[in-house]
Amino acid sequence: MSPEGPRPGGRSARVQAAVHAAVRALQSERPRHDITVPLIAQRAGVTPSTVYRRWGDLTELLADVAAERLRPDTPPTDTGTLGGDLSAYAEQYLEEMSAPTGRAFLRDIVASAAPGRPAGRCDTYIREQLEIIVARAQARGERPPPVGEIVEQVMAPMMYGILFAVTPLALTDAARLVEAMLARRAVPAI
């Protein structure tokens, strides 16, 4: 049973919930380097082999918990304009992911050895939010860029800034990226 597709209900869901709760509790109590699979298993009331069988290793488990915590619980803010919606979303994302907890979640996901699993879910979450913004803009008669273009020109530079830049991005940088993307779209191609 993979972390991205457990069947709803049953023992699998209970194990996942207990292990995720144990990880979150331990993360609030101690530094990351002091967290081990046996410690998590003990806290969750399962055997370490159950954790290893389901997640493979600690890195994958931490990435799975981080990806789940990054799932949006509300739709993006509707400001009434494409630019406003994109800026509000980008600023909120930058603010949350630039915080120490957000950066730790992103680093856990990036460190995951399994291609596509937690990182793929995070990409899906972002794209779903952007699809809502794009659909709203289309319903208002605006001509939004494709979601992939928004990811490449707004989200990707912000992610780089969050994870690697020496100088942290400011919230104004999120709005600047949105404005630059929309301005490029307004200029006819030569």
Description of the molecule:
The protein is mainly α and 190 residues long. The chain folds into two domains: 1-56, Homeodomain-like (Arc Repressor Mutant, subunit A), CATH 1.10.10; 82-186, Tetracycline Repressor, domain 2. The protein has nine helices and no strands. The protein has helices at 10-29, 37-44, 48-55, 58-69, 82-98, 100-111, 118-139, 147-163, 171-186. The longest helix is centred in the C-terminal third of the chain and has 22 residues, at 118-139. The radius of gyration is 19 Å and the shape is elongated. The termini are far apart. Mean pLDDT is 88; it is low at 1-7.
Derived from helix and strand composition plus strand pairing, the structural class reads: mainly alpha
Measure the end-to-end span. 52 Å
Rounded to the nearest angstrom, the radius of gyration is 19 Å
Instruction: Summarize model confidence as the mean pLDDT.
Output: 88
Low-confidence stretches: 1-7
CATH class of the largest domain: Mainly Alpha
Helical content class: 55-70%
CATH structural architecture of the largest domain: Orthogonal Bundle
In brief:
It is built from nine helices and no strands. With 190 residues, the protein is an all-alpha fold. It folds into two domains: 1-56, Homeodomain-like (Arc Repressor Mutant, subunit A, Orthogonal Bundle); 82-186, Tetracycline Repressor, domain 2 (Orthogonal Bundle), CATH 1.10.357.10.
Helix and strand topology:
Elements: H1 10-29, H2 37-44, H3 48-55, H4 58-69, H5 82-98, H6 100-111, H7 118-139, H8 147-163, H9 171-186
